[in-house]
Amino acid sequence: MANIEHLTKLRQGATSWMNWLNSHHQPEIDLINADLHGVKLPEAYLVKADLAGADFTGAQLQRANLTGANLQTAELIDADLQQANLTGANLQSAYLFDADLSQANLIGSDLRLVMARGANFSQTNLIGTSIRKGRLPQVNFTQAKLNRANLSETDLAKASFDLADLSGANFFEAELQSASFYRANLYRVKAVGTHLSHSYLLASNLIEANLTRCDLRWANLSYANLPNADLQQAKLRGANFTRANLTGANLSGANLRGANLTKADLSQANLTGADLEDTIFNKAVLTKTIMPDGTIHY
């Protein structure tokens, strides 16, 4: 249970709360399971506060300092956390439905098993965070920093990663059907067994990406940059690779039935054992490409 004195002072507002903290030499903040529904606490100081199970539904926490706070299983539904500092915070199994975390700092935070349908993480710093096994369909990650983030086995269907930096991120077996990655940086991303059917990857950077066994059926990868990408055994039926750069890419064993490779550059790519039935190669560059039967095209 929450400390009654802490809860009473916090409900009086951010200014009163700070004055009280200063006069008490900033004690350990105990707000476990506190009911803070709809509170207005912009710029509140809640560093290392224990907020496990607290109800912040509809709360206003813009620019609040929640560094190292424990928000495990906390309810932050429709909460405003714009520009909040959540560095190293524990948000395991927290509820963030429709919450606004735009421009917030969550570097090194723990978001495993978080539920955040419709949340806004635009321009948010999520470098090195773990969002493993989270449920985040229709979430907005536009221009977010997700370098080296762990999003494995996470539901991200219809999420937007437009212009986001995802270099080195891990999407192992994640659900990304109909997600958008317009001009996103996916350099050396790990997407083994990931579901990306009907996704939008126009002009995205996938240099040296690991897309082994990835499901990219009917995805739009036109103008995408995929030099040395690993697409072994990938499902690419009906995918659009118009003008894509696939130089040196490994497509061995891939299913490219009906894929569109118009004006794509497949120089030195490996198509050994690939299924090319009805694949469109109109004006594609096939210099030194290894064909399905093992022969090299000149």
What would the average pLDDT be, to the nearest integer?
A: 95
Described by strand count, sense and barrel closure, the largest sheet is: 2 strands, antiparallel
User: Helix tally?
Assistant: 2
Strand line-up across the major sheet: 1-2
- The secondary-structure element order is HHEE
Tell me the fraction of residues in β-strands, as a range.
Answer: under 5%
What is the β-strand count? 2
The geometry reads as elongated
Helix content estimate: under 10%
The computed structural class is little secondary structure
Gyration radius (Cα, Å) is: 23 Å
Low-confidence stretches: none
What's the helix and strand layout?
Blueprint: H1 4-11, H2 14-23, E1 289-290, E2 296-297
Antiparallel strand pairs: 1-2
Quick summary:
With 298 residues, this protein is mostly loops. The chain has helices at 4-11, 14-23, and strands at residues 289-290, 296-297.
Describe the structure.
The structure is a single chain. This protein has 298 residues and is largely without helices or strands. It contains two helices and two strands, in the order ααββ. Strands 1-2 form a two-stranded antiparallel ribbon. A hairpin with a 5-residue loop joins strand 1 and strand 2. The radius of gyration is 23 Å and the shape is elongated. The N and C termini lie far apart (73 Å). The model has no long low-confidence stretch (mean pLDDT 95).
Could you name the key traits of this structure?
298 residues; little secondary structure; two-stranded antiparallel ribbon; 2 strands; 6% helix; 1% strand
